[in-house]
Amino acid sequence: MEITKETKAAVKPALWAKNSAAMAVVAALTPICVEKFQQAADASANLAEMKKATYSWDQSKFVEKGGWATMPGSTEPNSAVAKACAESLGRGKAADLRG
Question: Can you give the pLDDT at residue 81?
Answer without folding.
Answer: 97
